[in-house]
Amino acid sequence: MRFQRSLAFVFPRIRNKFQSQASRYFSSQLESEQRSSFGIAFDIDGVILRGRDPIGGSPQAMRRLYGDSGNLNVPFLFLTNGGGVPESKRANELSEQLGVKILPSQVLQGHSPFKSLSERYENQLIIAAGKGEPAVVMSEYGFKKVVSLDEYASLFENIDPLSEYKKWTPNQVLDRSVHPMNTVPRYDVSSEAVKAVFVVSDPVDWGRDIQVLCDVLRCGGLPGQENGHQPPLYFASDDLEYKAAFPTNRLGMGAFRIALEGVFNRVHHNPLEHVSFGKPNPVVFKNAEAMLRQLQPSYHSDSSKESGDSGLQSFKTLYMIGDNPSVDIKGARQAGHPWFSILTRTGVFQGKHNHAEFPADLVVDTVEEAVDYILGRECVS
């Protein structure tokens, strides 16, 4: 089941955390006195990075959005379905990888909309699944009773019948010295029903995770009990494939969702219910547009005052630069004006011509070429 209506209220609450910080930064940093009439949203994997390495001249492309003194000239952000770490940490990583200052408010990840659900589940037990630091992410969003799926599974003896064969588990997944906050629950999860499950990032151990999630979801939130009502299940994205360091595409969260759904529907009398966030949902692009407007400097034009929008002018053009036609390009096309889609050949898409089903407004080889086109089209030197 796909659910979009709840996404509409996501962004206003996400942006508040960084809004004042971003406005001050961009107000002081922008060299031009006028607002930019355009903004840019960059996908990350397959466009900016492959694995952890910059590709397609991305560091050079990013620097072109800044002035000679390091002041930002063009509002931009990263719009990715990836995640697994807090936005602040991802911003620091990108800053180091690209050699420019990136703010947390410039990073919109697949799980960023989960923050809007924090009040609903604030004091209820939830599971956070996926690689990285999923429980830390959800804790920073305001969830107070969150446990990672790694830790949750470790608290139920024999829940994973293959655990004895996974020699890497004790050292890499359950190392309490590395993530003590993430791995030591402050409450008894063995007798409390899980109220919701959030797949924050790509799961690592598919076999175990499918087993544990089926136990939780078909037993009313407490493994080992009789069949009960399924707790809500949320996915940060629904990407079937994405581009990583390996030469060919890798399976993404959408593939895991298909696998979980296939198994669950065979072992339970009711079909799996779930909510998927992330691109290509048009609401994600509306949220990105709203954030880009917040990233503009605090300049009030006469027209904006008359319209009563507190000086937040609309963009003439917003550029989405992505590598996945069914995610980045499809999403920008569905969002409509003012989005302009640019497809690169450095990631999922590597075709000679435009994509047949989801054609972009422009196809280029690299992100550097895309930025060069944008600045030329917008008459920015």
TrEMBL record:
SUPFAM superfamilies: HAD-like (SSF56784). GO terms for cellular component: mitochondrion. One of its GO terms (biological process) is glycerophospholipid biosynthetic process. It comes from the Eukaryota. Pfam families: Hydrolase_6, Hydrolase_like. InterPro entries: CDP-alcohol_PTase-I, HAD-like_sf, HAD-SF_hydro_IIA, HAD-SF_hydro_IIA_CECR5, HAD_sf. This is Hydrolase family protein. It comes from Populus alba (White poplar).
